[in-house]
Amino acid sequence: MKIHVYAGLKDYFLPEFELTEEVLNIDQLKVCMLAINDQAGKLLAACRFAVEEGFIDNTYKFKAHETVIVVPPSSGG
Amino acid sequence: MRQSSLFPQVAGDSGGGWAAPGSGPDSAVPGSGSGWAAQSVGPAGWVVDQPIDLVGLLAGGHHPAAGAVVLFSGEVRESNRGKKVAFLEYEAHVPLAEKMVAEILAEARERWNLTVAIAQHRIGRVEIGETAVVVITASAHRNEAYIANRHIIDRIKHEAPIWKCEHYLDGTKEWGNNCNCQVAM
Fold it and tell me: Residues of A numbered 6-65 whose beta carbons fall under 8 angstroms of chain B's beta carbons: which are they?
């Protein structure tokens, strides 16, 4: 599974990285990301998640080899 | 500059509206035509990496059914929280941001019966005094154009996957967390 992160998340993670372990849902993905950097917890808790088709919620089941976009709180304008 | 394939789907007038003589998406390019530009069509997509052409976009804001046109330009100011700003840098997930801005505009057009709804947001480095985001709304009467304009910019700021990084003159930088909507209301 490929993970893309943006904005402030890049202070904690590489912009793009890959997870080799099986990750089924957002909660599991958060656990995996916190295992990489536990300093990101506060920001990660405020993030939305998306796949190619758009934003997803906690009920979404990741597909194999899916690219997941981790979206920090917006700050445009 | 990025071209968006979303234009025909979200920017076209599906509500039986007008089509200016000789206009189409291409004629919305500033200075390219003599007629009205097509409504809701920006010249380069909703998210752009080049300076925003306010005058050109405003030219696309006119509409024979509109008695009011409102333009909001969000611009880069020289200070933030008491610190001198050098420049801003915007990042976006462009496909998601394009889709979301298009949806926001479509929703506002429907809700307030707008004749025109246009928005563009810069990405990349934006200098002091430059426009970072523009929203143009037009409607029969001014109240709807004002309300819809505020609604659109608030939704873009809060929901679109676009992020601001403030670069300060002291060499530090700071991501986001800068929305003052609650203070301003």
Answer: 6-8, 11, 48, 50, 54-55
Q: How many CB contacts within 8 angstroms connect chain A with chain B?
A: 70
* Separation of alpha carbons B150 and B122, rounded Å: 18
Q: For helices B94-112 and B142-159, give the axis angle rounded to 10 degrees.
A: 150
- pTM for this structure? 0.80
pLDDT per position as a tens digit, A8-27: 999 999 999 999 999 999 99
Q: Which residues pair with B174 in a beta bridge?
A: B166
Residues 6+ apart with CB under 8 A from B162: A74, A75, A76, A77, B47, B90, B91, B92, B97, B121, B123, B156
Measure the CA–CA gap between B123 and B165, rounded to whole angstroms: 11
